[in-house]
Design goal:
homodimer; about 300 residues; alpha/beta; Rossmann fold; N-(1-d-carboxylethyl)-l-norvaline Dehydrogenase, domain 2; ten-stranded mixed β-sheet
Chain lengths: ~300, ~300
């Protein structure tokens, strides 16, 4: 029986582990703030595909309680500098434990890979609309696809094993041998719309597209990201910018996750989404005027 | 006796015309909002160099009342697209009337020069700390120097005539044959600190300089402005950026005029300071990523 420890019992972590639990995986969920309630009631997943109850195999309040050995540690916290993943997992990680990282951003795997070079690191990108509705209730509004691959290598057997589990549970899974490329692809959208929605004072995607000045910024930022991707050996398709804009035009007006975080007074994933891209540019002596200006402004919020 | 009509009875217009009145110039002041009070009491200038009372020769509430012919029309309104100077003055301007424009920004003379190609246009840049303290009271806190020159030509006799009047009144005056160069020089500071103080959420000059990210933005914006100046045939001294930063470091923490306008809910001089520079860049097919990003953000306020 596969055993997975989940770090980060937010919407993403709860949803993807709930699906694994449905196909028999033993999930140990680390809950901090909502421990008492979830210990008693579990988590309700209200999904547009059908509601269900998620009762984890084990719920723990403190990582020190752990005496089990896990096949996987699934990390689904927000990607924030204040959350030090290696410190959190170093005493739990066993030689054969694989790490699954479901987070936003670029080059977010590096720190973990360097700290644990002998543990396989599976990097995952979620395309999903899911949020915490209330205590113990997660609302799955749309999408659900996940892209997974081994960090820095071809997709391993462990990746395919996960693929099968999630597929069995009804999740759309794409296995890739080029997870870095997929991260740059997602960053094209994320790196533009997320910070712009904040620095342009709470604009949703439609409002951004409807302003010529803002749309120009979107394109210029996307262009800088494509250039960086190329230098990182990830050549993105030439039409990716236009495709992203056309696809966003078809979407309903949408508040980005960064804007929702900002409005709720929560920390924003600025480093994972912008800071790491800029650091990479600097390491290659490339200037990124658009990204750097937006970064300087948003880090002042 | 020299007769001057003053359009824009704010702090700048009141101060520089009050000084002219002190040396015998007949000032006609167009007052809109504070007409009744100023008609009765005049304007009190509280200056660090000594207070004095300014009683204009004539005060008018409506430009239609005018039947005089003026030697000069002095325009000291804010530089805003919503204030259409040619429309305001076209019925008052006589063939020999000269126009004096005391305003912030770059390329702000063009519209006036094109509308009145046969009237001399004197362009002036004020370096002064002066503000409206209360109804009928202007507070002159520091500096006072004014640079004047004929727009698009060498300084004329009319410029030197004005120079002598202001000098006699105690004002420091610099006459230049290159007023465009002087405007670009001032824009180096204005184009960086003014908008950054707003988009960085109310930072004063010292706070901007103390943030590495913000200071980098300052330098990058100043660099773009220097490049534009050069293309506009105004080569600025190589050390101008460093000199501006060193000089600003020596200043007391200072809230820019744009920030004061923003905080008071008044219109900001975004077009005169940023928009015109960007338009010029576009006309020369030059990209200005830093200026354009800041512009797109500040026009969204």
């Amino acid at each position: 029986m596969t055993k997975i420890l989940v770090i980060g019992a937010g919407a993403i972590g709860s949803f993807y582990s709930a699906k694994l639990a449905q196909v028999g995986v033993k999930i140990t969920l680390w809950c901090r703030s909502d421990y008492d309630f979830i210990k008693k009631n579990g988590i309700k997943i209200e999904s547009y595909e059908g509601d269900f109850q998620f009762i984890p195999h084990k719920i723990i309040e403190n990582l020190h309680e752990i005496d089990d050995e896990f096949d996987y540690i699934l990390i689904a916290t927000k990607a924030l500098p204040s959350i030090d993943i290696p410190v959190l997992i170093k005493n739990i990680l066993k030689p054969k434990t694989k790490i699954i990282l479901i987070q936003n951003g670029i080059h977010i795997e590096k720190n973990i890979a360097e700290n644990f070079p002998n543990n396989e690191l599976i990097s995952a990108i979620a395309f999903i609309g899911v949020s915490r509705k209330s205590l113990g209730v997660i609302c799955h509004q749309e999408y659900g696809k996940i892209i997974i691959g081994t960090y820095g290598a071809k997709a391993s057997d462990a990746v395919h094993f996960l693929e099968n589990l999630w597929k069995k549970s009804g999740i759309e899974v794409l296995v890739t041998d080029e997870i870095l490329l997929e991260r740059w692809k997602k960053l094209v959208w994320n790196g533009a719309f997320n910070p712009l929605s904040v620095v342009l004072h709470g604009k949703n995607t439609t409002e951004i597209l409807n302003s010529d000045l803002a749309l120009n910024l979107v394109k210029n930022i996307m262009n800088e990201i494509c250039n960086l991707a190329k230098i990182d050996n990830c050549e993105l398709p030439a039409e990716i910018i236009e495709k992203n804009i056309v696809a966003t035009k078809k979407m309903k007006p949408y508040k980005t996750s960064m804007l929702l975080d900002f409005e709720a007074g929560r920390q924003m994933e600025v480093e994972a989404i912008l800071g790491n891209a800029i650091k990479f540019a600097q390491s290659k002596s490339i200037t990124t005027p658009y990204l750097s200006t937006i970064y300087a402004i948003i880090t002042n919020y």
